[in-house]
Write a structure and sequence with these properties.
Keywords: Membrane, Oxidoreductase, Transmembrane, Transmembrane helix. The protein is an alpha/beta fold and 1301 residues long. The chain has 33 helices and 40 strands.
Length: 1301
Amino acid sequence: MKGAMTFYQGSELYIEWAAQHGCGVNQPNVMCQMVLQYMCEKDNPGLRDGTKRGNDNTAGGEQEPPTAVEAAETALGQHEPLDFYLDCKQRERQKGLYTADQNVRDDRGATATRQNPQGNAANNRHGLECPEERDYYPYWHPTPWHDIAVITDESPRRCEYYQSESQNVRAKGFCSEPEHNNPEACQDAGAEWKEREAHGEDPPDCVAGVSSRDNHNGNARGGRPNYYMWRIPEYIEGRCVLRLRYNITTGDFRSSALATLDGPATDRLDVGDDYFNLDKAMNDPNPGARRRAVFKGGPPVLAQDPVGDWLDLGEDFRLQLQVNTNQYGRTFQDRTHSFYIRTRPASASNARIVNYNVRGRRGNIVQVYPSVEYDFVPQDLKVEAGDYLHFQWTGSDANAKGNDGNGRQSTDRSNLVQLSDREENVPLAWQSHTLLYNAVASPDEDGKSLVRRFAYLGQQSQLCDPDDNDQNSIQNCKQLNGASAYFDGGLVQMKTVGTHKIGSTRNNDFSNRSQKATINVVPRAWRTEEVIALLLGLAAAAALLGYLGMAVYAYRHPSSWLFSKRHRPRVLRYLVGQQRLDAAIQRRKDWKRQERERWKDLSGKAEERTPDEKDMADPARTSKRTMCYACLVSLGLGEGQRVFMLILTLLNVICFAAGFSLHTGLGFQESVAYPLAKGAGFALDMDLAILLLPTLKSLQTALRGKGGRAREWMPLDDPISFHIAVAVLIAINSVIHVGAHFVHMNLIAGSPTFQSDPLEAWHLTSQEQISGTSVDSLLLTRSNFTGLLITALMLVIYVMALPSVRRATCCLARRCGGFRLFQRAHSVWPAVYLLLLAHSTPRFWIWMFFPALFVAVDRMLLTQRQRYPAVLVSARLLLFDVIHLTFEIPENFNYQAGQYIMLHWKGEWHPFTLTSAPEEKHLTVHIRASSTLDWCSALRRHLMLEAPQAAESSEGSRAEPNPGTTVDYEKIVLPSGKVCCKALPVSDGSFKGTGSSSKVALDVSVRQVTRERTKSVNTVKTEDSVALMEGANLPPGTVELQLQGPFGAPAQRVWEFKTVMVVGAGIGVTPFVSILRSVQMRKQQQLLLKASRDTEAPLLDRHARHDAAHAMVPPEEPAKKKKASASAKKPSAPGVDLSPSVLGRAAEPSERPKRAAPSKAAPAEDQAMVERLVKEVIPVPSRIHFYWIVRNQQELDWFYDLLATAVEGPAKELVEVNLFTTGEVELAAVKELKCVHHQYFGRPNWGRIFKGCKAQHVGDHIGVFLCGSPVIGEELARQSTKHSDPEQPSQTRFSFFKEHF
């Protein structure tokens, strides 16, 4: 070979080789390792190729041992330094190694090995290599060779050992007296054991090799050669050389091999669990004496060419095995000529550089075997536009004479021309070249010269004879005979995107040999850092445009919040100028002044506004059970919750089975973990799509419409429990999904890591490409990384949803925020679902299509249920830390008895059942605000203590208020339009309870808040407006509350039943008090309608809510008489106040009932029809069985007054009140309760109660409603199913509804 190749630091060098005996994963015949190493002149300054040929070119000469003079001979090549070899020659060989039956000499140091048993002597030394270091890897003494890669069929099993023992990372020891090979012998001889430091480089790349067949030129899959892409390190410089070591052994050394088991010609040998650890224990005690003798068992494992009755056919049928024990475990090696590594030029300092070379030599396939004929390397290359190719190759002038080929005998030459197609052989004209430069786009002389240089190899035209056709003539430049063997085309930047075909005119001899290749130039791909920089730039540009857009919008809309002093874009002064900006500011001030006036007008008329009347609509009939549902009930499956959970569980099983079956056999190495993960993933897709549905309050309210059948199949009565049940299914499937994926990833990480195939020559399968990938790398993929984020967020949500955290019963949770932790954790659900969309396949997008629509509809309905400013009228403290809040009814706020609202304060929303009836002129809620409930107790303290104290501007601390204390609030409107409530100043007073029984009346001293009740609404002074508009603080003693709703609840369906059983446990009585109050109101409306019919009085238009003149008025709000001015404007006929909750849509003014002229008495049938119509328009249950369960007598005191007023009224005879006290009771403390019909001590016997109710209401459809403990709900559901008759006309049945927030 002539000429020294030069490569640049950081460039890609493709190293190819032929493994004649085969190698790689799943190679059936051998076990192997390929070790690729390099050495540079810094390790041996005398590194060189030499000029002599063949065996004459032996470093150090032929004599043994070599001398320094002979080693310095420049005509002789040299790789290892002389000192390295001399130390090896003197050092005692490692005698603990397995040498089989080889008679290894002990007098020639480490040059004697099993492969080289006679050691090195004169005329049989191969350069200055150390045979022991050559044959064993990793070596235990210092070596000048640096490890690049280990390619093995036992990755990753051996990789940790190879990498940790490499001198790249580990220092190697030696003795100051070279003959000693271990620290003990060295120190015993009085010498010093030293260590040579590690090379300080990365450990070698340890990968699994692609299988290659033996006896097929050592080519790998698809007939492509074995190769390794070495990215030359930046720290290497100068003259270097490569060495490839190829170790092979057979499977006879395994513990399960026939050679080590009992057989006709063998004895069982204890070779250990791992053949890798085979040592001198298996050596022949009489080496060298058993060749071709009858083998009677080891040790050794196998002798030299053993003879035996292997088939157990008898001694006359012996066979000889061809075994050379010095090659059972044999190392081959090959080395390159030296080459140079240089620093890369400044023009390509950061670019990719690929070395493009030529391999092969002159001759036909037989003459060059086991090498090959000519090839470009790489043969099929893909690069990006902007990358550089370093074209260079070297030939030879010393090939064997007589070898077939073209051109001058014994020489190798290669040129490069471009072809239009690889099936063709005629090169393109220079005007059509696109590889070296784009002559099609811009033909010029420089490009033409470049094409000529690559095609003609720089031959001087004056030295060539165009008419000379002698193949051996040096003037025959047509055959490149006048060119140098070495050609360096330099760095050529790839600029033209496309597929370029190339060939060599000299060596491309059709039917004999082919030298063609393809270079594919693709558009440049964005690097990760460039993508990040682009995204950051786009984000910055979007932010800037958004900021400018907000500035423009703010300027054009001075009344928007963007133009407020706090949020006004500062860039406006530069965009529009100070004069125009001042004018816009003045327009905003004018707008604020107009808004204050408008709010004053609206507030003054607030008490006169009433909702529009509703048209009368046909009442919904009670729904009938479907046949399928009746069958499920007959099987004992109960109401919708159980049915839906059964269906959901079955669907989970079906989805899991579908996912498992569709992915069986598709996992890595057909692992069952993959289909398990996919099966759970299929179930998770469905569960995560359903998880949101129970949280859609507006959708639930719509589905709870009268007469609907949704409840039979959907768990509308207890959406929170259903939400939790789905969350449990998600947790179970998540554990399976995540756990199975981790098992699958561990299997991948524990498998062989195949060497990379950047040329895509071997067409590695997807499993081979990911095989051996570390778990860390697998976790950084899109699906796995997003899965980790989802798991982390879901884990936080699950932990924060624990009762101990949500209810702040845990000390740590209470300190960290309690319910706020739960609320804030659940607020990240949009991020979770966005990550799920990025994490999953399009299948999940399909699952989420309809739930996403439902979420959109729910949000649309929520916008209709706008957030109303809650105008607090009063706050009253009751026993057991219960507060009674009274609000003004917001405009257009229509609700039904039994529904609930969401109350907002300090960034949190909480649900509370309305205790007022829709027919009343105020909204009321009762909130249990014990000290264990952080938000509720903080609200109680603020309303009852802090706000009044701040309103009084009192610096001292006030005493805790006593039960019975009432604090009145007044409405204030801020200049921004924000509505708040302010506590009124406090004056001394006293309060006396107003229980319906004097035995339960309260008599405690309190500080009562007085209020001047006027129609005017206080506004904040103008001078305070700027501070309030721009700041976040409110005036002292002010509270800002909001409410949203109303939302549907199971209790609202009581109007569908004639007979109702309502059960309230503790504060769970609140929704039923609202219902009882509404019953009284509705009964009164029925009586008024009948009275108006009997007296032939016209129906009056409804302008305001009428005060009830009976016991329905709460104790703290005595009934008032109508003002004279109001009565003067209206006729004296009784007015009928029709509830919005019992009528249909709002009546248009033209549709409202008009005055009717007096008429004669109606016939009896007309009177009956009127009564029936009244009952249909204003439905009222004919019988209500009310059951209230409390723990003790004192627990009912706080709520008894409200219950008593709810029971008293026109519908008194319809309600039966049953009180159960479950705790210990002193009979002396028992009080007479007038409104209670039956009082019991102990838990209810629901079986007896249901049995009695069934007997009392034969043939009725009875509604059973509960607000309380789920334990009670389970018993009520069971009793409802048990006492329901089969689906037949005139049969009694119970329908159970439960309420739970």
